[in-house]
Amino acid sequence: MSQGVGVVGLYVRDQDEAVAFYVEKLGFAVHTDVRNGDYRWLTVQHPEQPSFQLGLFKPQAPTLDDATAQTVQEIVAKGAMPPLVLVVDDCRAAYDRLSARGVEFTQSPVDRYGAVDASFRDPSGNGWKMIEARPDAR
Amino acid sequence: MSVAARPDPKLLRRLLRAKDRMDAASHEPWPMERLAEVSGVSQAHFARSFKAAFGVPPHRYLLTRRLERARALLRDTDARIIEIAFQTGWNSLGTFGRTFRDVLGATPSELRAREQAVARPLERAPACYLSAAQRPNLMSAVSEKRRREPRHMSGPEEREVP
Hints:
The complex is a heterodimer. Chain A is of the alpha/beta class. Chain A is 24% helix and 38% strand. The longest helix of chain A is centred in the middle third of the chain and has 12 residues, at 66-77. By secondary structure, chain B is mostly helical. Chain B has helices spanning 9-24, 32-39, 43-54, 58-76, 81-87, 93-104, 108-116, 127-132, 142-148. The interface between A and B is medium-sized, with 27 and 22 residues.
């Protein structure tokens, strides 16, 4: 695939903490990590999704003024950012594996309309729904 | 407003944890003490900060979650109404029925009949987000709502939180 969405970014409160979470706990790999002064462009990638990068960005100057950066931090910490969905083959197995690594689950696996889903948050407050791919949709 | 006077995002993240815990187990009792402990703050500080962060007092938020869940169970299952009341955290069928009607404008059985008559939501969107969209938007206390609508003054005042 040569066209499509390449990077979607999340706001995180601390990039070191975020990379530890997404890499060590969720199993993503760092794709790009470059700095320019205080600014750090940091993206990670799902091992099975080479065409997509998830950006882990800190709301900060000079891209945002201090008051706006603070507002964004508050919004993230209140869990008010839009939904994120992680698709897995086996939701219960992934739940067991990730819980054991200390991922903060906000909902344990539930069977709904024939698919299993669970929810977790990253340290900043971004909320993920983890959904088991339906056999017919794979 | 100066940045220094704004809430600490780390505190907000801990308050979110209390909200998440109520979401995950809205049928359980959530006394202020338990919520404050989840957030790592004093009880007085918790109630004030939660309302400032999320726009509603913690126990009213809990009430909206219980009603949302009761409504989903009424629509999606054939469980008896008394079972749904106990399953969603009420201690009395009377309180459940009265609160339900005062907030949602229909009795549990009326709402069940109405909602079971319409088609299921699209299965392509995660069910919990669709369900959250129907959460009652309870911007005033139930007792206040009752005062404004005198026809609903059918029982003694009850506390909002079981």
